[in-house]
């Protein structure tokens, strides 16, 4: 096919060197520079600029550039140099490896498939001829070389930027402006902002190069949900294709892609599929045939299609420089999307070519480009924009498929302007600590070059990550703008559960952090899309004038959040040296502090929105509770923004969104949080707002209210704040110390950087999978004690291990052998161990033995795709082996030397880092114990010991501390020790045993102050039961009350054997015993729909009204409705009808609304039957407002409020990684903190400064501020309606539900000019202390005479043995100090076995 002639542009070589000419363009402060006016008119169009006219048309401006570049022409190349003041720092250069600050570096912009790149690799997958310079005074300037050709960015001379590229090209400078952010905003006006991503794309993405079937894909998705690890997207690499043919599916392994995607959608996942540019050259393949017919392929100089080798072997390549080809590709994408794809992944689009030393197509290939792109040119002109144009075509195809959905495209190759169409990532990185460290700088450099939506392959693409490396990477990668885990085919599947329980838990915590921050991240992307502001930035953006921040590489800013991560293998969060910018930075977390997670700081003056940790983004509901974290600045002020819309589509461009500006201000110890202004027509959701004020040290004060209303929070005194901060800091340190760090486990193959002069010539070849299993013992136990063939015998230890001693046990063998090995300068490890049980079919000889070997035995098995380098290993196939063998009939163990030779030198002493190096002496252990008792931090203990033993590490300190704590516990079981702790802190505690055994069945405890609070605040109680999520695998029942200041407090807890009626009844009976007077039984008890718990409430508290949590009911009904009712319009109609039924004000209205619900559900009878039979018929009196408002619930109709308020405490109690005793101090302190906050709230109500109207004169200082707030709201209603309001208009609901005067009562007082009498307020709101005076009256409320008489009568009826038993139990109660706790029995009755102990209390 004939193609148009190639256009030629002047090289500018005939222009004399000198200062470049300039013209102002775009906006004030932006200048275009050219070699001359003639050259300016001859340069090609701009592909970087969103609108090429913005670059080519000058504007009027009186300003002149402060810094003017010079130019020279050498060998047909234009050299542009810009010199800046000494002390300037250089950044940008797009996708670049190595350090963050680029001075001394050289980058070649030539898109290259750089698998295994290193810090010195000069060309990667994307090209950004752009440099951002920060001047010594903190101002910034950017310079863009607007050329698509191969360009050298030379920054090797300090404070000097030099571009070298063929042909003439303009350079554009942006600034100097006041800040780097201002430069990036200006740049975005030129090259365009990032596309607005769909909200789901900001969740976690999971990928692997070999998800070989739809079953495997669904298995991965199912495991994420089963393990409650958040994830939104599963990615399909080219394994889904039929023979690597794009737009096809393998008919055996991916039989029905549409059904696969539907199954993924059902579980809350999206599906993204790969499309490469290489199209298989094969007649009969519809894409090739159609493309050949339409003449869409890149051609050689002779006019024939170019054929290169990629995954399908012989391939042709679309010429995306032509609009007709882009339209052809877009229509293919449109049809492909109809099969259910939610996003497209463009890979190999540099373009990458196998078996070619250049790794791409020849420069002489011809592209028949559109005139607005530059016309017909050879490949060297269009090479760097090939990936951009492919991504653009894919993006346009997705828009064709569904104009109401936002496309999501990920492209490996890119250029300046790619962000308009696609996200990106840092390519084929390695599973090394160096690449983890580099990933932060690389993501930031892309953001500084105009591409904010980027991330790195978490865990590394090539090579196997170790558990600690993967967990650390997930910790920091979860806070990158784009978050995806991915690895190549031959590696371990890089998913959170592949690396052990410790790593899995860290990944779960890290991803929950990200999902909590989704509201913030989505807001940041809204501003990135509309204004061009960056999302993730280097730390120096917080203070560009501070030179000490400019080279920090292990921290970055995510909006106003400063993230500090550890990227060193042996440096956890507890060892991290943190450099904070000037100003206020308050650390915080989500009660998830862990040594392997980054530290988080919030900038003073900031407010950030925080959501719930959902398992996928679309699980969130606009009505979910919203939390605002507030950090005040020096002036006591803060502000923040939240953007909300449908999360997808383009309605937000038509004004259908909500942009809320929140402000906070502290005046006279009162913090006021309000909405300053809003934008958009999106209706504000009806939701609760949780304000959390950061105080420092992780301490917070909080309050609840309704979003959109003014919320106030009164701060305690400075001393009380200091106490809160001190307690929080201690709890934070305890959490770090008690957390289980990810073990530092070596992996079989760990990849290092690919270096050397040919590093850019590494070829990508298909990789076969192979087993990771290594047989560590190549010889059978019966082999003779001779060295392995080929081994060099350097040391013979046979004599040292020859013994005729008969050892009593396996442990005795191990201890003896290890000590002898230590004396000889090496370490023994267990290579194989077998125990004959009769059930092990592999142990056919019925032997019990253990084989020990030198730690340097075995070797790493190389993979078929041998890497250029592997890490050095201490493994050297040392043949040394011992065998310990058990004799028959329990006669003991003997030791036999199988091979006594070593093929390596033995050390006289074990060096630093060895298993035995740095072990503490008895004197050092004593010092550790003394310092531990004095609450000295482990790091400070280590500093002290370094003077004695330079080999000691922090791990030795932790081990010594743990050994000391274990010795304190002694022979007691966990639950025995727990009871001891409860007794020490004077908790009231009951427990009961399994019949005729010492195993605990149930345990119940309450804090003494909580009992006092219960005596005062028993009107409403919440009961919440969490199922088997703690270490003991027991249900945990928490009983919570609410004070007059509307703060919740933990009344009591109960660990129970099971969740049967009997267990709940026993626990509630113990609760009843805490209530002094029979007439003080709780009028209202709120639970979830747990039938056993509800039955127990009816048994123990028959007179109480058992309400059901309306929030949980709505959540269940919505989930059921979402499964049954479609489309969304009908779903919304049905849910509106359901909400109307729930909120029926009276029975008559209820019947009418129920009829309407039945009508709208007529097409969905299954759903109608569900809501009637499950909820309305059996339980309507427990949650429909017509009945609920007949009882005094004090405004509490759900338990989600107390769940949220107590989530930290529950997390400690339910911690599956630790035991109750290890976190007891934190639990106890948090319960005490509840009581402290309640006392503070009482003081605020007593010393109230508001409500000075004489109308409240008899109430001020005698009722809570919250009650006054309710009354004031109703009094405002009186003022609005008039003082003649009567009962029919009032409704009087608040009198019934809250025990407070309603509007008609207030109108009556107002008409008579009479202050509200104190007697009109229910006693609940009038109680403002912990007083237990009534318990101490002489009314004998707590007299024991009746119980003593009953015991005496029982004693008289018992036989002699029974009298002895009862007397012994009474002695334990009467004389506890004289009774020693017996050691726990060895065997217990059934699960939970770990809970057995001697009972010390009466059942």
What does the model show?
The protein starts with 17 loop residues before the first strand and ends in a 29-residue tail after the last helix. It is an alpha+beta fold and 1403 residues long. Strand 21 and strand 22 form a beta hairpin. Mean pLDDT is 84; it is low at 748-792, 839-844, 863-871, 1214-1218, 1332-1341 and 1378-1403. The chain is 31% helix and 19% strand. The relative contact order is 0.05. The strands form 13 sheets. It has a 7-stranded parallel sheet. A 7-stranded mixed sheet has the order 48-49-52-51-50-53-54, with helices on both faces.
Helical proportion, percent range:
25-40%
Strand content: 15-25%
N-to-C CA distance: 95 Å
Overall 3D shape:
globular
Main sheet record: 7 strands, parallel
The strands making up the biggest β-sheet line up spatially as 23-20-16-15-14-28-27
Unreliable stretches covering 5 or more consecutive residues: 748-792, 839-844, 863-871, 1214-1218, 1332-1341, 1378-1403
Radius of gyration: 36 Å
Q: Which structural class do the helices and strands define?
A: alpha+beta
Number of strands: 54
Counted by DSSP, the helix tally is 39
**Mean pLDDT, nearest integer?**
84
């Amino acid at each position: 096919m004939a193609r148009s002639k190639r256009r030629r542009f002047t090289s500018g070589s005939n222009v004399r060197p000198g200062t470049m000419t300039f013209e102002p363009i775009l906006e004030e402060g932006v200048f275009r520079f050219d070699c001359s006016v003639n050259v300016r008119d001859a340069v090609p169009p701009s592909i970087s600029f969103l609108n090429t006219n913005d670059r080519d048309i000058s504007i009027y401006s009186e300003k002149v550039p402060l810094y003017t570049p010079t130019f020279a022409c050498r060998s047909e190349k234009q050299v542009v140099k810009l010199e800046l003041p000494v002390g300037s720092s250089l950044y940008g250069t797009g996708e670049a490896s190595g350090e963050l600050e680029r001075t001394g570096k050289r980058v070649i912009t030539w898109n290259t498939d750089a698998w295994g790149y290193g810090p010195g690799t000069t060309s990667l997958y994307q090209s950004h001829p752009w440099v951002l310079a920060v001047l010594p005074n903190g101002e910034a300037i950017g310079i863009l070389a607007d050329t698509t050709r191969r360009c050298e960015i030379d920054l090797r001379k300090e404070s000097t930027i030099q571009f070298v590229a063929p042909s003439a090209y303009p350079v554009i400078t942006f600034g100097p402006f006041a800040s780097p952010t201002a430069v990036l905003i200006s740049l975005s006006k030129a090259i365009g902002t990032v596309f607005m991503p769909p909200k789901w794309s900001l969740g976690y993405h999971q990928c692997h190069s070999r998800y070989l079937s739809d079953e495997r894909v669904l298995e991965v998705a199912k495991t994420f949900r089963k393990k409650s690890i958040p994830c939104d997207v599963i990615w399909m690499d080219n394994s889904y294709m039929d023979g690597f043919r794009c737009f096809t599916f393998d008919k055996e392994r991916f039989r029905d892609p549409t059904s696969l995607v539907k199954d993924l959608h059902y579980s809350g996942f999206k599906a993204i599929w790969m499309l490469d540019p290489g199209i298989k050259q094969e007649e009969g393949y519809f894409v090739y045939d159609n493309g050949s017919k339409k003449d869409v392929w890149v051609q050689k100089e002779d006019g024939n299609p170019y054929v290169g080798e990629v995954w399908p072997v012989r391939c042709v390549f679309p010429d995306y420089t032509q609009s007709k080809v882009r339209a052809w590709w877009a229509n293919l994408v449109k049809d492909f999307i109809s099969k259910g794809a939610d996003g497209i992944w463009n890979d190999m689009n540099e373009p990458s070519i196998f078996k070619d030393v250049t790794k791409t197509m020849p420069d002489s290939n011809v592209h028949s480009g559109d005139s607005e792109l530059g016309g017909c040119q050879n490949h060297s002109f269009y090479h760097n924009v090939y990936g951009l144009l492919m991504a653009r075509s894919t993006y346009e195809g997705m828009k064709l498929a569904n104009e109401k959905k936002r496309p999501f495209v990920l492209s490996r190759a890119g250029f300046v302007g790619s962000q308009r169409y696609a996200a990106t990532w840092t390519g084929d990185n390695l599973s090394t600590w160096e690449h983890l460290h580099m990933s932060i700088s690389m993501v930031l450099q892309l953001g500084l070059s105009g591409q904010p939506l980027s991330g790195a392959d978490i865990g590394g693409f090539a090579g196997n990550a170790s558990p600690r490396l993967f967990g650390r990477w997930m910790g920091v990668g979860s806070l990158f703008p784009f978050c995806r885990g991915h690895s190549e085919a031959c590696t371990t599947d890089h998913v959170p559960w592949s690396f052990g329980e410790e790593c899995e838990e860290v990944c779960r915590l890290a991803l929950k952090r990200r999902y909590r921050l989704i509201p913030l991240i989505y807001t940041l992307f809204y501003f990135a899309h509309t204004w061009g502001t960056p999302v993730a930035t280097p730390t120096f953006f917080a203070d560009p004038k501070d030179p000490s921040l400019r080279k920090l590489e292990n921290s970055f800013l995510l909006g106003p959040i400063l993230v500090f991560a550890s990227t060193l293998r042996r440096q956890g969060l507890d060892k991290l040296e943190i450099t904070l910018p000037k100003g206020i930075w308050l650390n915080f977390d989500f009660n998830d502090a862990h040594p392997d997670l980054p530290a988080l700081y919030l900038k003073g003056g900031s407010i950030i929105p925080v959501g719930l940790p959902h398992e996928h983004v679309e699980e969130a509901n606009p009505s979910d509770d919203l939390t605002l974290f507030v950090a005040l600045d020096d002036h006591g002020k803060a502000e923040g923004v939240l953007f909300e819309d449908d999360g997808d589509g383009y309605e937000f461009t038509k004004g259908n969104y909500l942009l809320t500006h929140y402000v906070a201000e502290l005046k006279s110890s009162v913090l006021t949080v309000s909405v300053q202004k809003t934008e958009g027509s999106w209706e504000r959701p009806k939701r609760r707002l949780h304000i959390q004020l950061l105080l420092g040290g992780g301490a917070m004060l909080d309050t609840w209210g309704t979003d959109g209303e003014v919320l106030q929070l009164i701060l305690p005194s400075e001393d009380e704040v200091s106490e809160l901060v001190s307690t929080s800091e201690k709890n934070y340190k305890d959490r770090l110390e008690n957390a289980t760090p990810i073990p530092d486990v070596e992996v079989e193959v760990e990849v290092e950087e690919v270096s050397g002069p040919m590093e850019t010539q590494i070829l990508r070849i298909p990789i076969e999978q192979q087993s990771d299993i290594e047989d560590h013992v190549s010889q059978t136990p019966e082999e003779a004690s001779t060295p392995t063939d080929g081994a060099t015998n350097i040391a013979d230890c046979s004599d040292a291990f020859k013994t005729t001693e008969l050892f009593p046990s396996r442990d005795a063998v191990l201890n003896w052998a290890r000590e002898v090995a230590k004396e000889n300068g090496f370490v023994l490890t267990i290579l194989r161990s077998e125990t004959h049980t009769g059930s092990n079919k592999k142990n056919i000889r019925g032997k019990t033995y253990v084989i020990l070997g030198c730690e340097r035995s075995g070797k790493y098995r190389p993979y078929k795709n041998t890497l250029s380098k592997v890490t050095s290993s201490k493994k050297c196939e040392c043949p040394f082996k011992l065998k310990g063998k058990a004799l028959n009939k329990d006669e003991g163990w003997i030791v036999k030397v199988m091979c006594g030779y070593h093929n390596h030198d033995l050390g006289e002493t074990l060096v630093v880092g060895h298993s035995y190096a740095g072990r503490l002496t008895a004197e050092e252990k004593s010092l550790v114990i003394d310092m531990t008792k004095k609450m000295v931090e482990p790091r400070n203990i280590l500093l002290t010991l370094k003077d004695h033993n330079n080999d000691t590490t922090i791990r030795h300190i932790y081990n010594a501390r743990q050994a000391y704590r274990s010795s304190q516990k002694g022979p007691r079981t966990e639950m025995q020790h727990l009871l001891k702790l409860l007794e020490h802190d004077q908790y009231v505690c009951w427990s009961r045993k399994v019949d005729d055994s010492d195993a605990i069945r149930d345990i119940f405890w309450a804090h003494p102050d909580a009992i006092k609070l219960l005596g005062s605040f028993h009107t409403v109680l919440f009961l919440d039961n969490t199922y088997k999520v703690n270490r003991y695998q027991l249900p945990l029942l928490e009983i919570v009350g609410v004070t007059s200041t509307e703060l919740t407090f933990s009344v009591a807890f109960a660990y129970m054997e099971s969740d049967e009626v009997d267990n709940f009844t026993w626990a509630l009976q113990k609760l009843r015993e805490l209530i002094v007077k029979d007439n003080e039984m709780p009028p209202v008890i709120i639970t979830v729909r747990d039938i056993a718990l509800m039955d127990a409430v009816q048994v123990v508290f028959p007179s109480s009204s058992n309400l059901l949590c309306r929030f949980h009911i709505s959540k269940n009904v919505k989930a059921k409705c979402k499964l049954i009712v479609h489309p969304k319009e009908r779903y919304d109609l049905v849910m509106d009808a359901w909400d109307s039924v729930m909120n029926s004000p009276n029975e008559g209205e209820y019947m009418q609304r129920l009829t309407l619900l039945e009508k709208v559900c007529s097409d969905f009878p299954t759903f109608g039957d569900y809501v009637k039979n499950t909820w309305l018929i059996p339980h309507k009196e427990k949650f429909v407002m017509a009945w609920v408002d007949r009882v005094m619930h004090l405004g509490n109709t759900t338990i989600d409020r107390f769940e949220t308020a107590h989530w930290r405490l529950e997390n400690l109690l339910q911690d599956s990684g630790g035991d109750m005793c290890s976190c007891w101090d934190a639990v106890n302190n948090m319960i005490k903190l509840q009581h402290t906050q309640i006392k503070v709230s009482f003081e605020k109500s007593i010393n109230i400064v508001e409500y000075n109207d004489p109308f409240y004169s008899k109430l001020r200082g005698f009722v809570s501020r919250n009650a006054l707030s309710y009354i004031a709201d109703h009094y405002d209603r009186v003022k609005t309606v008039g003082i003649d309001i009567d009962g029919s208009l009032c409704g009087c609901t608040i009198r019934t539900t809250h025990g407070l005067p309603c509007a008609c009562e207030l109108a009556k007082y107002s008409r008579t000019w009479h202050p509200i009498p104190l007697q009109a307020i229910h006693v609940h709101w009038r109680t403002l202390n912990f007083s237990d005076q009534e318990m101490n009256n002489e009314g004998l409320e707590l007299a024991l005479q009746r119980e003593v008489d009953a015991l005496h009568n029982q004693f008289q009826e018992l036989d002699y043995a029974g009298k002895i038993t009862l007397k012994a139990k009474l002695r334990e109660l009467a004389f506890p100090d004289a009774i020693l706790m017996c050691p726990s029995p060895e065997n217990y009755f059934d699960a939970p076995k770990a809970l057995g102990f001697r009972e010390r209390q009466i059942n």
